[in-house]
Amino acid sequence: MLDFEEYVRTRHDALLRSARRLVGDPLKAQDLLQTALLRTYRQWDRITDKQLADTYLRRVMINTRTEWWRARKLQELPVEHLPDTSVEDSTAQHADRALLMDIMRVLAPQQRTVVVLRYWERMSTAETAAALGMAPGTVKSTLHRALARLREELQRRDPDSAPASAPGRGGSAAGRRAR
Prior knowledge:
Layout: H1 4-22, H2 26-43, H3 53-71, H4 91-103, H5 109-120, H6 125-132, H7 136-157, H8 173-178
Helix pairs in contact: 1-2, 1-3, 2-3, 5-7, 6-7
């Protein structure tokens, strides 16, 4: 049976990466992880399947972040003149993300899982292999085939794009559309 200290020692870096994606500030991410670890420690004996500990802890982090967000105090400060600042337009980034999420549907479930773990969760090949119960070589070949399939689908949907600007090779869908 996996004890809590060993679990934290082996999974700390991956969990901290997840916390950093939930809150932008690295110090707040550490606070979030520590709070979630404390709450998880209190329930550790109730988690019967320790293989699901990451899932449980990530849910605790999400719930904790939501609590913090709800508890924040908003304060409006009136000013005489509004500053002349521009707001960054992230329309292209949202369009790229929407396109990526749409073309991810063409992948087989195992391919999609490998892509998500490697690029979204930023797991190493070894971590991905361990999480999915497969050999590292299988993870690499599955990832290779998945990325090739994504490139094909992207090329099919946007025939004007050059193959060198497909996912994983630089460039964005918005940049390709602008060419």
